[in-house]
Specification:
Elements: H1 3-9, H2 17-24, H3 28-40, E1 44-48, E2 52-57, H4 64-67, E3 79-86, H5 89-98, E4 105-112, E5 130-136, H6 146-164, E6 169-171, E7 175-178, E8 181-193, E9 196-206, H7 226-230, H8 237-257, H9 260-268, E10 276-281, E11 284-293, E12 299-303, E13 306-310, E14 314-315
Parallel strand pairs: 3-4
Antiparallel strand pairs: 1-2, 4-5, 5-9, 6-7, 7-8, 8-9, 10-11, 10-14, 11-12, 12-13
Helix pairs in contact: 2-3, 6-8, 6-9
The protein binds biotin.
Biotin binds near residues 125 and 131.
């Protein structure tokens, strides 16, 4: 018996305990036990003598039951793996991918104990954020994957605007900023041979309900969360769904028509283009003016000695 489904289908009306017991061949004590289990998970259920049970409120959970019923994607997020705790959702998605999990597999964790950022940094992931990894199999050469990080950033910025009204800008290649404060980061990791990436894991961390004190002291001044901006907590499932839906649209379009459109959207919403930048990368430090995004996702920096294309790096 999927009691949660039945309570939701009741749309705020009462479900009779005795009818439930009768229809599903359960004792009334067994129905009561189901109700208590749901309550323990944060569902607020009213019980009225002679009327039955009524769902009053659901927890801000990222479980499959909270996310999937109204998700409208075809494949993105359809294979849903939720964990209360993981070391890193990227590691779990890679493991599932290596074991043959299909494209669109999504790993979500309430908290991570060893969340990773780019360049080997730690990504602090307490409960209340959105920590997820999406497994993709785009069948593209490794060299053509640059735009995927940007695409995820565009999708998240659009989803945030749609669901929360918060306008975030993209700091190339993988951060979302709200007024210079970082609210989200993306970590793309690909496995495969040079000719073809047989799996890409796009990891995304969005600060949602953390308070300032939840951030490590060294990043506190540069980081923010939706709660910090809006002044109240936000439910995460609608934001996750919006991200998955927007992502699927952009990704399908990109695979068929190329990533030019999404790069143009990123350029139009960029916190980097038109600004002086100092980029620390593998080949040292580069200073200049960020002038455009190339079709492969590279950032073009105008330096004193000419234009330089940068594929990855850390921007100030
Ligand atoms: C960055 O800004 O450096 C990228 C941060 C990426 C963090 C996310 S949280 C979910 C996924 N799992 C990880 O271990 N990292 C990414």
């Amino acid at each position: 018996m999927d009691l949660l489904y039945l309570l939701r289908a009741g749309q705020g009306g009462y479900l009779s305990g005795s009818a439930l017991a009768r229809n599903y061949g359960l004792s009334r004590a067994a129905v009561w036990k189901h109700i208590e289990d749901l309550r323990a998970r944060g569902y607020v259920i009213e019980a009225k003598p002679r009327l039955g049970y009524r769902l009053l409120a659901s927890p801000d959970a990222l479980t499959a039951e909270e996310v999937l019923p109204v998700l409208s994607t075809k494949s993105i997020g359809r294979y849903y793996h939720f964990f209360e705790e993981l070391a890193s959702t990227n590691d779990e998605a890679k493991r599932l991918g290596a074991a043959g999990a299909p494209a669109g597999t999504l790993v979500v964790a309430e908290r991570q104990t060893a969340g990773r950022g780019r360049l080997g940094r730690t990504w602090t992931s307490p409960p209340g954020g959105l920590w997820l990894s999406l497994l993709l199999r785009p069948n593209l050469p490794l060299a053509d994957l640059g735009p995927l990080t940007v695409l995820a950033a565009v999708a998240l910025a659009k989803a945030l605007a749609r669901e929360t009204g918060v306008k975030a800008r993209i700091k190339w290649p993988n951060d979302l900023l709200v007024e210079q404060h970082k609210i989200a980061g993306i970590l793309a990791e690909a496995q495969g041979e040079l000719g073809c990436a047989n799996q890409v894991v796009l990891g995304l961390g969005l600060n949602v309900n953390q308070e300032t004190a939840d951030f490590p002291a060294d990043i506190r001044a540069r980081a923010t969360s939706l709660r910090g901006i809006l002044g109240h907590e936000m439910r995460r499932a609608p934001i996750l769904r919006a991200f998955l839906e927007v992502f699927e649209d952009l990704y399908e379009h990109g695979l068929i028509h190329g990533f030019r459109d999404v790069l143009a959207q990123a350029a139009a919403n960029s916190a980097t283009l038109g600004h002086p930048v100092r980029i620390t990368g593998q080949s040292g430090v580069l200073e200049g003016l960020a002038v455009r995004l190339d079709p492969d996702g590279a950032l073009v920096v105008r330096t004193a000695t000419g234009d330089v294309r940068v594929m990855a790096g850390d921007i100030e």
